[in-house]
C-alpha cells in the first residue's frame, strides 16, 4: 500500500513517452485528429480529485481492500504506463522497490538527524531521464539487531 501510494504521488516517469493518434477519436468533448501527439500526464492523473479522495494526502490505507493496482489496467494509477508500450521491467522494478524497502524497514529503525522534524523534509523533485528527489534524503538508521536470531 505504501509503494502504491508513493507511485501515485511521485511517479518516476511523470509524463509518459509520447503517443501518436492512429485515427480520429474523442476524449471528452475534444476531437483528436490522426497523427496528434499525445502526452499522458501520469502525475496529474494520480492527483486528480475526480479520481482520488484527498489526492494530495499521503494515505496508503486508501488501498486497503481495494483492487487498484499499477499493472496498467487501472487508468488512474499508471506509474509503469499502459498498453503495448507498458514498461517491460514492471515486475523487476516493483520487486526491487518492495524488496529493498521491506529489508530497510525490517532491519532498521529510521530517525531524522539532529533536530530535524518531519515537516523539514524537502519533497521537491527534479526531472531528468526519470523524476527523482531534488535533495538527498538524510536519515539515521538504528539497527534492529535484536531480530538477528
Ligand atoms: C520502479 C521502476 C520503474 C518504473 C516506475 C518504470 C516506468 C516506466 C514507464 C512509465 C515507461 C513508459 C511506459 C509507457 O509509455 O506506457 C517505461 C518504459 C520502459 N521501461 Fe520502465 N520503469 C521501471 C523499471 C524498469 C526496469 C527495471 C527496466 C528494465 C530492466 C525498464 C525498462 C523499460 C523499457 C525498455 C521501456 C520502454 C518500453 C517501450 O517503449 O516499448 N523499466 N518504464
TrEMBL record:
InterPro entries: CYP450_71D (IPR052306), Cyt_P450 (IPR001128), Cyt_P450_CS (IPR017972), Cyt_P450_E_grp-I (IPR002401), Cyt_P450_sf (IPR036396). Pfam families: p450 (PF00067). Its cofactor is heme. The keyword Chaperone does not apply. Heme binds at residue 87. GO terms for molecular function: heme binding; iron ion binding; monooxygenase activity; oxidoreductase activity, acting on paired donors, with incorporation or reduction of molecular oxygen. Keywords: Heme, Iron, Membrane, Metal-binding, Monooxygenase, Oxidoreductase, Transmembrane, Transmembrane helix. The keyword Repressor does not apply. GO terms for cellular component: membrane. It comes from the Eukaryota. PROSITE patterns: CYTOCHROME_P450. It is a single-pass membrane protein. It is found in: Membrane. Belongs to the cytochrome P450 family. This is Cytochrome P450. It comes from Gossypium aridum.
Amino acid at each position: 500500500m505504501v509503494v502504491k501510494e508513493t507511485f501515485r504521488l511521485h511517479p518516476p516517469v511523470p509524463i509518459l513517452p509520447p503517443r501518436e493518434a492512429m485515427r480520429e477519436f474523442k476524449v471528452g468533448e475534444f476531437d483528436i485528429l490522426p497523427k496528434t501527439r499525445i502526452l499522458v500526464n501520469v502525475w496529474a492523473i494520480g492527483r486528480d480529485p475526480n479520481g482520488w479522495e484527498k489526492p494530495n494526502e499521503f494515505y496508503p490505507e486508501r488501498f486497503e481492500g481495494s483492487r487498484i493496482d499499477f499493472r496498467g489496467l487501472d487508468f488512474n494509477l499508471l506509474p509503469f504506463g499502459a498498453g503495448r508500450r507498458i514498461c517491460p521491467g514492471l515486475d523487476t522494478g516493483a520487486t526491487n522497490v518492495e524488496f529493498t524497502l521491506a529489508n530497510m524497514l525490517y532491519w532498521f529503525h529510521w530517525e531524522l538527524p539532529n533536530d530535524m522534524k518531519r515537516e523539514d523534509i524537502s519533497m521537491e523533485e527534479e526531472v531528468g531521464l526519470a523524476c527523482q528527489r531534488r535533495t538527498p534524503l538524510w536519515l539515521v538508521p538504528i539497527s534492529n539487531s535484536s531480530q538477528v536470531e
